[in-house]
Amino acid sequence: MRAGADDILLVVDVQNDFCPGGALAVPRGDEVVPVVNRLAPLFPHVAMTQDWHPPGHLSFASAHPGRKPFETIDLAYGAQTLWPDHCVQGSDGAAFHRGLNLPQAELVLRKGFRREIDSYSAFYENDRRTPTGLAGYLRERGFKRVFLVGLATDFCVHYSAVDARREGFAAVLVEDGCRAIDLAGSLADAMAKMAAAGVERMTSDALAG
Fold first, then answer.
1. Which one from 30, 156, 163, 178 is the annotated catalytic residue?
2. Which end of the chain is more exposed for a tag (fewer CB within 10 A), N or C?
3. Is 17 a catalytic residue?
4. Is the pLDDT of residue 19 over 80?
């Protein structure tokens, strides 16, 4: 399979804090780096997302006295998993993994920068109403299909893929270019929801072949 002029590779949150040794490390998260580096030259267009939280972000457990990471609380926009402080603006943890080699990336979209609301999806904040502007960018550039890689499969990649479909784009999950947190069955749930939304699945070998 060959990527076309109306395809784009979306590289989701391949940042230090989501890789081994980071504040919110996804198991084996760094394994996506060589896959992404191998895939990117096959695409005429590449975009990246970057989690970019201000200090004291409302999704941090530390912002809620007595709460611990991975607990769930109700906020104005619904249920919110509490996370360790991660991807704080300007920190080394928020930087892209040093092994990532994507000089051709045309867009870096920062998300999660509003203190009062989290943002898993590259398209919408977690209230599911506030857009990031990515859909408009993709439409204006004439893209039709979004291929997704990055971290984590069951959170930011999952929400981005489902929202790509919601916005009328074809969406393809490159499975070996992603890794999951798998928090209390979240991976199986995410895969089921992506399938229901019409997200396709393939491997990097199928693209490179």
1. 156
2. C
3. no
4. yes
What integer is the mean pLDDT of 67-95? 96
Question: Sorting pLDDT into bands at 50, 70 and 90, what band is 209?
Answer: low
- Residue 3's pLDDT band, with cuts at 50, 70 and 90, is confident
Give the tens place of pLDDT for each residue, 127-174.
999 999 999 999 999 999 999 999 999 999 999 999 999 999 999 999
| Contact predicate 123/135, CB 8 Å | yes
- Residue 124's CB is within 10 A of a number of other CB atoms, namely 22
User: In this predicted structure, what is the pLDDT of residue 1?
Assistant: 74
State yes or no: is 13 an active-site residue. Answer: yes
Active site residue 111: yes
Catalytic hit among 19, 111, 163, 178: 111
Dist CA 105 CA 40 (whole Å): 9
- How far apart, in whole angstroms, are the C-alpha atoms of residue 93 and residue 3? 32
Catalytic residue among 7, 13, 51, 85: 13
How many Cα atoms are found within 13 Å in the side-chain-facing hemisphere of 20?
A: 7
DSSP string covering 83-136, please? B-S-SBTTSGGGSBPTT---TT--EEEEE--STT----SSSB-TTSSSB-SHHH
> CB count, 10 Å around CB of 85?
20
Residue of 39, 33, 37 whose CA lies nearest to 208: 39
What does the pLDDT read at residue 184? 86
DSSP state of 190: H
Calpha distance 124→136 (Å, rounded):
12
